[in-house]
């Protein structure tokens, strides 16, 4: 039997080829995550369905969003509801771009924001949607909370998976409770596990006896919303009619 000797360069090249597929699936870096996050500026007018003839003055607010595939910005519905104007800016940039709420799902408190100028997405990145996290799993919440101009990061764990009332719509739906701080301005931001979206931050428990009790819209609700708008319309959350 004859043996064929290989040079070290050949062996190194072969090992590199084996390693590359692993590197391609590596967890997104903090810089990659930051480039997928968006701050949202909204001018809105409150609407009273009981007194539609009464229109209040405009109010200003901010929220957060995350870029997903298709150059779409996923955020919370209450961030852009009743908006007169919407502007967005990328992490690390002061320039604001005009945007519009393309789809609003009030029942799931989710929305898709589109930007008029495609150059907004130059230099940005996207994040993938993951799966429902297990109890006790560590999560990171990213968003533009009050207290500064740049993106903020908080950490916590999934402490409960339950059905609770969504404050925006008054409907019950699936939620994940997390002990990561969710402060004003962070609504619509991304909750991540291994660099993938496991939820959209949307509300917190306001109580003197509870600290850092926040809630995220979990993946099953996000996927239902994205499937719903696939035909270009928002039909809402399915319900079972019972007498």
Question: How would you describe what is shown here?
Answer:
The strands form two sheets. A six-stranded antiparallel beta barrel has the order 1-2-3-6-5-4. The radius of gyration is 21 Å and the shape is globular. By secondary structure, it is an alpha+beta fold. The protein contains four helices and twelve strands, in the order H-H-E-E-E-H-E-E-E-E-E-E-E-E-E-H. A hairpin with a 6-residue loop joins strand 4 and strand 5 (97-105). The model is unreliable at 1-24 (pLDDT under 50).
Helix tally equals: 4
Low-confidence spans:
1-24
The portion of residues assigned to helices is 10-25%
Helix and strand composition category: alpha+beta
Cα-to-Cα separation, first versus last residue: 82 Å
Number of strands: 12
Element order: H for helix, E for strand: HHEEEHEEEEEEEEEH
Roughly what fraction of the amino acids lie in strands?
A: 35-45%
List the helices and strands and how they pair.
Elements: H1 8-24, H2 30-34, E1 37-44, E2 59-68, E3 72-75, H3 77-80, E4 83-90, E5 97-105, E6 110-115, E7 138-143, E8 152-165, E9 172-178, E10 190-193, E11 196-204, E12 214-218, H4 219-228
Could you name the key traits of this structure?
12 strands, 6-stranded antiparallel β-barrel, 6-stranded antiparallel beta barrel, 4 helices, 15% helix, 243 residues, alpha+beta, globular, single chain, disordered N terminus
Compact description:
This protein has 243 residues and is an alpha+beta fold. The protein is built from 4 helices and 12 strands.
């Amino acid at each position: 039997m004859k043996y064929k000797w290989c040079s070290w360069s050949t062996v190194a090249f072969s090992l590199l080829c084996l390693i590359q597929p692993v590197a391609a699936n590596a967890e997104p870096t903090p810089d990659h995550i930051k480039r997928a996050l968006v701050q949202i500026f909204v001018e809105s007018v409150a609407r009273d369905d009981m007194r539609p003839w009464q229109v209040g003055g405009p109010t200003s607010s901010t929220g957060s969003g995350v870029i997903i595939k298709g150059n779409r910005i996923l955020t919370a519905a209450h961030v852009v509801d009743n908006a007169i104007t919407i502007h967005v800016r990328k992490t690390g940039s002061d320039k604001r771009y005009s945007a519009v709420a393309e789809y609003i799902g009030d029942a799931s408190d989710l929305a898709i924001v589109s930007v008029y100028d495609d150059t907004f997405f130059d230099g940005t990145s996207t994040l993938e949607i993951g799966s429902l996290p297990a109890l006790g799993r560590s999560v990171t919440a990213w968003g533009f909370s009050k207290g500064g101009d740049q993106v903020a990061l908080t950490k916590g764990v999934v402490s409960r998976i339950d059905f609770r009332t969504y404050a925006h719509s008054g409907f019950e739906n699936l939620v994940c409770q997390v002990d990561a701080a969710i402060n004003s301005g962070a609504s619509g931001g991304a909750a991540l596990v291994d660099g993938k979206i496991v939820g959209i931050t949307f509300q917190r428990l306001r109580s003197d006896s509870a600290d850092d009790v926040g809630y995220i819209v979990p993946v099953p609700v996000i996927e239902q919303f994205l499937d719903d708008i696939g035909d270009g319309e928002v039909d809402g959350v399915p319900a079972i009619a019972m007498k």
